[in-house]
Amino acid sequence: WGFFVETDDKLILDVRDDSLAVSSFRKSDAVITQGAVHMFAGTYDGTAGATAGNGMLLYEDPGSAVIASTAYNDGTHLGMEDLTTVVTIGATSVPNQYFNGSLLCISLVSGVLTIHQLNALRRLGNGFWGLSL
């Protein structure tokens, strides 16, 4: 899977089926804010198959709503596999697919976080790093 910014400055959460060389993903409808400190989050509920992108949500500075985004599903996508594609966070091998700036903290968790849990992480980060997201 991958979590990165595409060349059009839109946020993507991607899951790849290596056997078929296809991806299903969710992409923000608008460009994300870059060049300042923000918290971005992507959740995936494990929806498998041709509608995997429908099981994803994107967040910026989690508040009460998700980032407006669109699911892009490949009808042949069966599921993620543990093969050769590496996990990518913040950048890909494709030129200009990266976050503009530095990554401060990355958290990987098992399971889908709720908006309340994401807000708790945001508050912890604000307190720890003296931010006001």
Protein traits:
133 residues, alpha+beta, two-stranded antiparallel sheet, 1 helix, 7 strands, 26% strand
The share of residues in helices is 10-25%
Please tally the helical runs, counting DSSP H or I stretches of 4 or more residues.
1
Number of E-type strands? 7
Topology as H/E string? EEEEEEEH
The main β sheet shows up as: 5 strands, mixed
Q: Can I get a quick summary?
A:
With 133 residues, the chain is α+β, with helices and mostly antiparallel strands. Helices cover 11% and strands 26% of the residues. It starts with a strand and ends with a helix.
Description:
- With about 130 residues, the chain is of the alpha+beta class.
- Helices cover about 10% and strands about 25% of the residues.
- The protein is built from one helix and seven strands, in the order βββββββα.
- It has one helix at about 115-130, and strands at about 1-5, 10-15, 20-30, 40-45, 55-60, 70, 90.
- The strands form two sheets. It has a five-stranded mixed beta sheet, with no helix packed on it. The chain has a two-stranded antiparallel ribbon with strand order 4-5.
- A hairpin with a 4-residue loop joins strand 2 and strand 3 (about 20-30).
- The two termini are about 25 Å apart.
- The model has no long low-confidence stretch (mean pLDDT about 85).
